[in-house]
């Protein structure tokens, strides 16, 4: 983050060295004594965890006529990427990029539906998540490095121009890839977080803050206050999240609330409260919402974060200066010539483009832009699984991307 008063230390105590020496799926198999773990969402949906995950194809998820969902691993000299894949090998390619604090499995509903319709779908665990590489240095989580990961994955998947779908911090990755590597991108679908041609950084976000909701004298960073807190109190933030990982994730993943639209959003109060969880420094006991994460999927998410902790995921926020410089190096000033779809969450207190000017840079930089809206909060892909597929499908048909 720009203008950071406190230096951010190197990651000297990351709890997982890399995906090369710790496999979430093998660990789960041991923990669950070789039993079958049912993945919610339909009868007969299961992933057999009784076998140690292999390097290229450990386990698969199958349900009736739905395509199998395979977990695979790509290892290169610079990085390891674990990814989920389904659909015909020769189908048009669609790659799903998750954000904070997610993993590739969050896209399971969309992947299985679109794969059944002929798309070849892939969803990586992004750098610092799941069984992908977990570098120690904060600078390793700069956008340039993450885009390079995706270029390697894209080459591994055959290199045909793909449709890239991003959510949360996955959206800046998809947008940066489209701007820096346009030949790899047929279209971009961004969910919740719009495109920022000048880089997703606090300096780019502040001009869009709605000062009727967030007066500058009281809330100088508006709803983006949490971004600054992550930088100025990095170790505390990680410690607070890691104190009770199941409770943290259950508290984070809540659906949008219609009554909160246009009101002060909780992310603006993080500094004032001394952290997301205030003086308790740990998440309250909250029951996970199975409508968002089916219970077994949530168990996998929790197991992954028990290995990595929140330090790598939060490190994505530590590279504003580098990310802005990277954005400014894009050809054509970051303007995207490809078809772009933005799916807005109308109950998203962070990024609702109807409540602020947060979508204006995207509108200026994306001449072929389609905007759709869903009655959802920030976790739109989990809240509106089917509706998101409908939006992507309709846009792809209109733009002849299939």
Task: Please outline the helices and strands.
Elements: H1 24-31, E1 36-38, E2 46-48, E3 60-63, E4 66-75, E5 80-86, E6 93-97, H2 108-116, E7 120-124, H3 143-156, E8 162-167, H4 170-180, E9 185-191, H5 202-205, H6 225-232, H7 234-242, H8 245-252, H9 270-273, H10 295-308, H11 311-315, H12 320-328, E10 340-345, H13 360-365, E11 369-374, H14 380-383, H15 385-398
Parallel strand pairs: 6-7, 6-8, 8-9, 9-10, 10-11
Antiparallel strand pairs: 1-2, 2-3, 3-4, 4-5, 5-7
Helix pairs in contact: 2-15, 3-4, 6-7
Structural features, described:
The protein has 15 helices and 11 strands. It starts with 23 loop residues before the first helix and ends with a helix. The protein has one domain (26-398): Rossmann fold (3-Layer(aba) Sandwich). Residues 1-64 have low confidence and may be disordered. With 402 residues, the protein is an alpha/beta fold. The chain has helices at 24-31, 108-116, 143-156, 170-180, 202-205, 225-232, 234-242, 245-252, 270-273, 295-308, 311-315, 320-328, 360-365, 380-383, 385-398; strands at 36-38, 46-48, 60-63, 66-75, 80-86, 93-97, 120-124, 162-167, 185-191, 340-345, 369-374. The longest helix is centred in the middle third of the chain and has 14 residues, at 143-156. Helices cover 32% and strands 15% of the residues. It has an 11-stranded mixed sheet with strand order 1-2-3-4-5-7-6-8-9-10-11, with helices on both faces.
């Amino acid at each position: 983050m720009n203008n950071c008063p406190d230096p951010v230390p190197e990651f000297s105590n990351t709890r997982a060295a890399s995906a090369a020496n710790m496999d979430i799926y093998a660990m789960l198999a041991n923990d669950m004594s070789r039993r079958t773990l049912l993945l919610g969402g339909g009868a007969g949906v299961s992933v057999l965890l009784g076998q140690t995950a292999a390097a290229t194809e450990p386990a698969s998820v199958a349900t009736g006529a739905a395509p199998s969902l395979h977990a695979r691993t790509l290892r290169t000299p610079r990085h390891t990427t674990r990814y989920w894949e389904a659909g015909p090998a020769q189908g048009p390619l669609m790659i799903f990029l998750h954000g904070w604090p997610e993993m590739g499995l969050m896209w399971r509903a969309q992947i299985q539906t679109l794969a059944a319709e002929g798309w070849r779908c892939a969803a990586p665990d992004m750098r610092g998540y799941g069984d992908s590489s977990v570098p120690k240095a904060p600078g390793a989580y700069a956008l340039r490095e993450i885009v390079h990961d995706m270029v390697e994955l894209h080459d591994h998947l055959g290199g045909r121009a793909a449709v890239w779908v991003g959510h949360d911090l996955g959206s800046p990755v998809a947008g940066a890839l489209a701007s820096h590597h346009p030949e790899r991108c047929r279209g971009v679908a961004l969910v919740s977080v719009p495109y920022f041609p000048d880089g997703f950084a606090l300096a780019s976000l502040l001009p869009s803050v709605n000062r009727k909701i967030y007066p500058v004298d009281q809330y100088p960073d508006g709803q983006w206050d949490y971004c600054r807190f992550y930088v100025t109190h990095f170790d505390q933030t990680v410690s607070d999240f890691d104190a009770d990982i199941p409770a943290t994730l259950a508290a984070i993943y809540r659906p949008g609330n219609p009554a909160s639209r246009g009101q002060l959003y909780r992310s603006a109060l993080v500094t004032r409260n001394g952290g997301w969880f205030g003086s308790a420094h740990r998440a309250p006991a909250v029951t996970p919402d199975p409508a968002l994460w089916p219970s077994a999927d949530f168990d996998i998410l929790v197991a992954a974060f028990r290995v990595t902790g929140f330090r790598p995921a939060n490190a994505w926020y530590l590279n504003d200066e580098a990310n802005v410089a990277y954005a400014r190096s894009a050809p054509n000033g970051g303007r995207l010539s490809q078809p772009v779809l933005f799916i807005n969450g109308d109950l998203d207190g962070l990024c609702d483009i109807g409540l602020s000017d947060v979508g204006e840079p995207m509108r200026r930089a994306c001449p072929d832009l389609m905007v759709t809206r869903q009655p959802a909060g920030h976790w739109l892909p989990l809240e509106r699984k089917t509706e998101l597929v409908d939006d992507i499908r309709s846009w792809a048909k209109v733009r002849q991307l299939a």
